[in-house]
């Protein structure tokens, strides 16, 4: 996976606070925080959802993630589980959307413990900071966050290391 981070921060759920968040986001964007984050994604985006490491409820699923795949987003990255494995992953092969999650669950709605609250603010996944616009690179070995301010230097160094001929001592 490779793309620029669009972030979604979840907060512990509390009915009075959930109502305030929902109303404020709807007033500003005419949709909730989860839907707004999805709407910001395109083929160059990785949706990064901070779910505070919860594993008993889903950070997303079904219709929402199918929408992300439909937008041909590069990936979703979360420290939580997602649900409805078949629906979002069925078309992900066609669109090349990748999933890096804590796994899959049958449980519905992280909102029982967490509520999507803030879009495009810094988030933390497994003690790593991700800010909006950072570049996310991942493969089967793991995920690396490249700060937006360092992306050009990382790219330049990678290109220069590829241009060097291999030494005869290299195995």
Account of the 3D structure:
It is a single chain. Strands 1, 2, 3, 5, 7, 10 and 11 form a 7-stranded mixed sheet that branches. The protein has a two-stranded parallel ribbon with strand order 4-6. Strands 8-9 form a two-stranded antiparallel sheet. With 171 residues, the protein is an alpha/beta fold. The chain is globular, with a radius of gyration of 18 Å. The longest helix is centred in the N-terminal third of the chain and has 15 residues, at 15-29. Helix 2 (33-39) packs parallel to helix 3. 32% of the residues lie in helices and 29% in strands. It has helices at residues 15-29, 33-39, 62-70, 86-95, 151-163, and strands at residues 2-12, 45-50, 75-78, 81-82, 98-100, 103-104, 114-119, 123-125, 128-130, 135-139, 142-146. The chain has one domain: Ribonuclease E inhibitor RraA/RraA-like (Glucose Oxidase, domain 1). The model has no long low-confidence stretch (mean pLDDT 78).
Task: Count up the domains.
Answer: 1
The DSSP helix count reads: 5
Outline, from the CA principal axes? globular
Number of strands: 11
CATH superfamily placement:
Ribonuclease E inhibitor RraA/RraA-like
Overall structural class, as computed from helix and strand content, comes to alpha/beta
Mean of the pLDDT scores?
78
| Percent of residues in beta strands | 25-35%
CATH topology: the name is: Glucose Oxidase, domain 1
Distance between the termini: 28 Å
CATH class category: Alpha Beta
CATH architecture: 3-Layer(bba) Sandwich
Largest sheet data: 7 strands, mixed
What's the order of the H and E elements? EHHEHEEHEEEEEEEH
Radius of gyration: 18 Å
Helix content: 25-40%
């Amino acid at each position: 996976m490779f793309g620029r981070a669009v972030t979604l921060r979840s907060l512990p759920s509390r009915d009075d606070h959930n109502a305030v968040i929902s109303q404020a986001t709807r007033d500003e964007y005419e949709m909730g925080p989860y839907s707004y984050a999805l709407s910001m994604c395109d083929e160059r985006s990785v949706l990064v959802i901070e779910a505070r490491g919860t594993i008993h409820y889903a950070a997303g699923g079904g219709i929402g993630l199918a929408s992300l795949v439909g937008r041909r987003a590069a990936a979703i990255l979360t420290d939580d589980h997602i649900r409805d494995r078949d629906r979002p992953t069925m078309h992900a092969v066609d669109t090349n959307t990748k999933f890096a999650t804590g796994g899959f669950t049958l449980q519905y709605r992280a909102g029982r413990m967490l509520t999507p609250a803030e879009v495009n603010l810094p988030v933390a996944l497994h003690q790593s900071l991700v800010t909006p616009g950072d570049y996310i690179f991942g493969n089967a070995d793991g995920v690396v966050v490249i700060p937006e301010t360092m992306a050009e230097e990382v790219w330049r160094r990678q290109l220069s290391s590829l241009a060097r001929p291999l030494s005869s001592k290299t195995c």
